[in-house]
Amino acid sequence: MHAIRIALLSLFLASSPGHANPWSEVPGPSEGMPRSIGETSAGCIDGAAALPTEGRGYVVMHLERRRNYGHPSLVHAVRELGEKAAQGIGLLHVGDLGLARGGPMPFGHRSHQSGLDVDVWFDLNPGLHARADRMRSNIPAPSLLNSAARGLDYELWSDRHIRVLQAAAHLPGVDRIFVNAYIKRELCRTVAGDRDWLRKIRPWYHHDDHFHMRLACPPDSPACVRQEPIPLGEGCDSSLDWWLHQHPALPSKPSEPKPALPSACRTVLADP
Ligand SMILES: [Zn+2]
């Protein structure tokens, strides 16, 4: 269970907005060559790129958070996924990437620190596109779970969700994608033909209203710390049953101290 615990911390969602920290107050990306530094839950990014707040097939939500930054390969991956979405899947509502120099956020995530993580809503309907920026801050992402939270809401779940996850899993550089266990189970039950990509779809806490896409360490980032590789196989086995039947509870607070940032992140933060 220890591995689960460690992994849990890296995705832990803090409950309420906290105070600003130095990472949330930087004027913009640092000027170095792009490189991800450290771990997704204890790291930063030099030379981050900004994802334009809208583009073909996508809009960025919660603009006021200014979390639309990441490694250029992440920005590229989101734009690619938008292109795919525009071909009959729908409109992507892109949640947080990371802060302009990565690093810990005052609220919302433990990971998303090294420019390799992005959240994408499961709401693929284009209705929000015309709304004002202000509205993009105030609307919640709808969940795909049924009212008992013990399965999917089949009024909402659709083939488009399978297609967007499949497209995301096939993007170059994508290492893993976190979804709710009931979503993983649905894919295990229904996907026909090519199923290799199911391996990258990992069950996780929450993630019933968005999926979380994580890139592997890019080749230009020697100081990026690789995550433990995902297990072989589709993951439609007893490991999934554990999520479905144990209903592991998410602790209300991280019980371990935050890991220290690599010292290279101090330089990234200090860049004028
Ligand atoms: Zn996330």
UniProtKB/TrEMBL annotation:
Disulfide cysteine pairs (residue numbers): 44-265, 188-236, 217-224
Gene Ontology molecular function terms on file: metal ion binding; metallopeptidase activity; serine-type endopeptidase activity
Key word Oxidoreductase present: no
Pfam families given in the database record: Peptidase_M74
GO annotations of cellular component type: outer membrane-bounded periplasmic space
GO annotation terms (biological process): proteolysis
Spans annotated as Disordered: 250-272
Span of the signal peptide: 1-20
Keywords: Disulfide bond, Hydrolase, Metal-binding, Metalloprotease, Periplasm, Protease, Signal, Zinc
Name of this protein: Penicillin-insensitive murein endopeptidase
